[in-house]
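TICKET: design request
STATUS: open
ATTACHED STRUCTURE:
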């Protein structure tokens, strides 16, 4: 209401990533990439993939947490399909108990990452609303819902790609 953007768009995802990395209940291997200048063309992820993609060669999936609202698992952006058809079906199944849906989005860092690493990815809801405006806000309930789903999703993905290593490689 003070016409200042609070940054829930991006900060909620950063909070989730840092929390996942420090959460002792998480028992799957994680790597993290925090990017700058996503809002002006995914500059940070572009730089990271052009200059340091080898640091992420062991990654089997990319989960970006940068979608408004509380229902979306983005499996396709305007520039690239992010997940295989079979994985999209699994994600829809895994998201259903949380009231989630697979859908399309615009653009986010996940596009650069999955294209460069040739892996599946998603952009997951982060519980923010009114992005890029003076009325931007976070719903703590929706951010907590996202984090709870992330905790459920990580072992499912780890198990999926461990038991089906031939499905790790994916290109649009």
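STATUS: resolved
RESOLUTION: sequence designed for all positions
ATTACHED SEQUENCE:
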């Amino acid at each position: 209401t003070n016409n200042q953007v609070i940054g829930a768009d991006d900060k909620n995802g950063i909070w989730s990533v840092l929390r996942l990395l420090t959460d002792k209940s998480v028992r799957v291997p994680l790597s993290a990439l925090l990017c700058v200048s996503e809002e002006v063309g995914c500059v940070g992820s572009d730089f990271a993939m052009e200059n340091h993609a080898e640091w992420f060669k062991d990654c089997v999936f990319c989960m970006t947490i940068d979608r408004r609202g509380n229902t979306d698992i983005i499996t396709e952006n305007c520039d690239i399909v992010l997940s295989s058809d079979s994985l999209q079906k699994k994600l829809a199944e895994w998201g259903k108990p949380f009231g989630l849906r697979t859908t399309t989005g615009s653009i986010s860092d996940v596009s650069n990452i999955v294209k460069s690493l040739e892996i599946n990815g998603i952009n997951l809801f982060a519980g923010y609303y009114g992005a890029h405006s003076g009325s931007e806000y976070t719903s703590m309930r929706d951010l907590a819902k996202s984090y709870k789903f992330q905790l459920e999703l990580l072992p499912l993905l780890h198990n999926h790609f461990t038991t089906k290593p031939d499905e790790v490689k994916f290109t649009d």
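CLOSING REMARK: The chain has five helices and seven strands. The radius of gyration is 15 Å.
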